[in-house]
Write a structure and sequence with these properties.
Number of strands: 6
Strand order of the largest sheet: 1-2
Shape: globular
Structural class: alpha+beta
Mean pLDDT: 81
Helix content: 10-25%
Low-confidence stretches: 1-17
Order of helices and strands: EEHEHHEHEE
Largest sheet: 2 strands, antiparallel
Radius of gyration: 15 Å
């Protein structure tokens, strides 16, 4: 059921979704399963999506991190994402070890994930991070 105002969003309780910011306040949240194929749909819901070519393991500069837990994804990978959005090229991040369930979840969504942040005006914003190769 799509109980919110975003016509492109649909309920998908078993995916690792991207939250549609239009419905992120109170009440049910409409979600879009996150993948390379759904980025344009996620963007229509108001989320920022990568404006750069998704990095691969063939990039000349790889940032290798032991695990890619929540802290790393919300901070270090977020800043790498910002650098790529600003035009830096040739970089990617890759995680080694860590939580296998998290790795499976990220792999299922093409290593994309969403950071929900509080903007200066007090509104919630959603940003899809695409730096993980």
């Amino acid at each position: 059921q799509n109980s919110g105002s975003c016509a492109d969003c649909t309920s998908h309780p078993h995916a690792h979704p991207s939250v549609c910011p239009e419905d992120a306040a109170d009440g049910p949240r409409n979600t879009v399963p996150l993948s390379n194929e759904t980025l344009s749909q996620v963007q229509r819901c108001g989320a920022e999506v990568p404006n750069y070519s998704r990095p691969t393991l063939n990039e000349p500069n790889l940032i290798c991190h032991l695990g890619v837990g929540g802290f790393h994804r919300a901070h270090a990978a977020f800043y790498t994402d910002q650098l790529l959005r600003d035009g830096l090229t040739g970089w990617a991040e890759v995680g080694f070890g860590g939580n296998k369930e998290l790795a499976k979840g990220l792999e299922a969504q093409d290593n994309l994930y969403t950071v929900i942040n509080l903007q200066r005006d007090g509104a919630l914003g959603a940003r899809v991070i695409g730096v993980l190769a």
